[in-house]
Amino acid sequence: HIAFLIGLIMMLGQLIGSFFGTHYLLKANPRVIRILIVVMSISMLARYIYSMDFY
């Protein structure tokens, strides 16, 4: 069974998100983008370590 409606909704969300993300990326200061990437990477790593019970 394939859930086409859910797939179409997810595809629409991806298209809208990529459009606005690219629009913001081209207008934003590269330093701000770099800081956001570093902060998000560190937070994802911390969550991964926490979920693996390495604390």
Automatic annotation (TrEMBL):
Transmembrane stretches, by residue range?
A: 6-26, 33-50
Keyword list, A-Z: Membrane, Transmembrane, Transmembrane helix
What's this protein's name? Uncharacterized protein
